């Protein structure tokens, strides 16, 4: 019978995993994906090589973990809004998307992919399939549910999700890729979300279903 790890050991393992992911992100950004070895990551994270290889046997597996970690949304703690109030639902999703895009390290993750994808196209595929798409699909499902509830009128929930998230990221996130000091005020970010919501309501909201 195999003994189950204690709460202490699970906590230590989680802390080491976080240290490894943070160190790998820094090194990938500083030295490039190809120029960073797992041994160097282990040293920077303050863990043994055996510990790192046990959690991440390859560099590709480590990068997949980084992408998954940054795009992770706990749907038990932050479930999708219930359909029935399109305005409130979009406001909630918009605020959560801002929090996701502006978390420490997200811009660095995109810079790594953009810099390395010509030589390592699999990094772009990982970012798209394990990061962007699962999140995007959750927003598409929400809009489809509003359509089924009669509070939205749309023929293409995928396009509607693309439009909504694009309006927000174009202001909140993408300038960061070129402007090192792009830090709009909280009020400006909130206004960007509000304007995106109003645009969606004008385009897709069913009459009388916009909410307060």
Automatic annotation (TrEMBL):
InterPro entries: Homeodomain-like_sf (IPR009057), HTH-type_TetR-like_transc_reg (IPR050109), HTH_TetR (IPR001647), Tet_transcr_reg_TetR-rel_C_sf (IPR036271), TetR_C_Proteobacteria (IPR039536). It comes from the Bacteria. The keyword RNA-binding does not apply. Residues 37-56 bind DNA. The keyword DNA-binding applies. Keywords: DNA-binding. Residues 14-74 form the HTH tetR-type domain. This is TetR/AcrR family transcriptional regulator. It comes from Streptomyces millisiae.
């Amino acid at each position: 019978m195999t003994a189950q790890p204690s709460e202490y050991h699970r906590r230590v393992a989680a802390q080491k995993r976080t240290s490894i992911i943070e160190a790998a992100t820094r090194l990938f950004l500083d030295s490039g994906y190809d120029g960073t070895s797992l041994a160097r990551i282990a040293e920077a994270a303050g863990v043994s090589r055996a510990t790192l290889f046990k959690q991440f046997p390859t560099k590709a597996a480590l990068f997949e973990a980084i992408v998954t970690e940054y795009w992770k949304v706990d749907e038990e703690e932050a479930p999708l809004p219930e359909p029935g109030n399109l305005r409130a639902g979009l406001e909630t999703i918009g605020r959560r998307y801002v929090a996701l895009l502006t978390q420490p390290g997200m811009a660095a993750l995109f810079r790594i992919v953009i810099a390395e994808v010509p030589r390592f196209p699999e990094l772009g595929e990982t970012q798209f399939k394990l990061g962007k798409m699962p999140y995007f699909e959750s927003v598409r499902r929400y809009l489809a549910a509003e359509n089924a509830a009669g509070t939205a009128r749309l023929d293409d929930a995928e396009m509607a999700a693309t439009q909504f998230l694009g309006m927000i990221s174009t202001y909140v996130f993408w300038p960061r890729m070129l402007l090192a000091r792009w830090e709009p005020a909280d009020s400006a970010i909130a206004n960007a979300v509000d304007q995106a919501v109003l645009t969606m309501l004008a385009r897709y909201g069913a009459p009388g279903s916009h909410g307060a």
